[in-house]
């Protein structure tokens, strides 16, 4: 399984967009609020708790497709991450990193809407 640091780097390189990923924004907001707090423990805990829920709600297919596109483009670690999600699904570092990335996009979008 990828280290957290490598998964975060890979998630940043994926073409996942919160506005085009059909997952529950209210569920994702729990991770977004944790990110806004800046508390690493809260962020990891929220991602750990909510990734399986978001996975079941529809994250699996967009993440798998994004990883397949990244693998085809030669993005480092994409092939490894695909193997990881095939074996452990939402319990992988890449799934949690993708949730954190989408939560960050949600947070930035909410802030932009307020301005």
- Helix and strand pattern: HHHHH
Q: If you average the pLDDT, what whole number results?
A: 95
User: What is the end-to-end distance?
Assistant: 40 Å
Oligomer: single chain
Care to describe what's here?
- This protein has 115 residues and is an all-alpha fold.
- The chain has one domain (4-14, 24-114).
- It has helices at 4-13, 25-37, 40-72, 78-88, 93-114.
- It is globular and about 40 Å long.
- The mean pLDDT is 95.
In short:
With 115 residues, the protein is mostly helical.
SSE arrangement:
Elements: H1 4-13, H2 25-37, H3 40-72, H4 78-88, H5 93-114
Helix pairs in contact: 1-5, 2-3, 2-5, 3-4, 3-5
Notable characteristics:
mainly alpha; 5 helices; about 120 residues; about 0% strand; globular
């Amino acid at each position: 399984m990828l280290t957290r640091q490598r998964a975060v780097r890979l998630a940043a390189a994926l073409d996942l967009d919160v506005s085009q990923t059909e997952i529950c924004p209210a569920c994702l907001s729990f991770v977004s609020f944790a990110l806004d707090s800046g508390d690493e423990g809260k962020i990891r805990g929220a991602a750990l708790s909510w990734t399986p829920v978001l996975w079941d709600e529809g994250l699996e297919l967009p993440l798998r497709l994004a990883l397949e596109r990244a693998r085809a483009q030669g993005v480092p670690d994409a092939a490894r991450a695909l193997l990881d999600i095939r074996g452990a699904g939402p319990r992988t570092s890449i799934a949690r990193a993708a949730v954190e990335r989408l939560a960050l996009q949600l947070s930035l979008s909410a802030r932009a809407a307020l301005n």
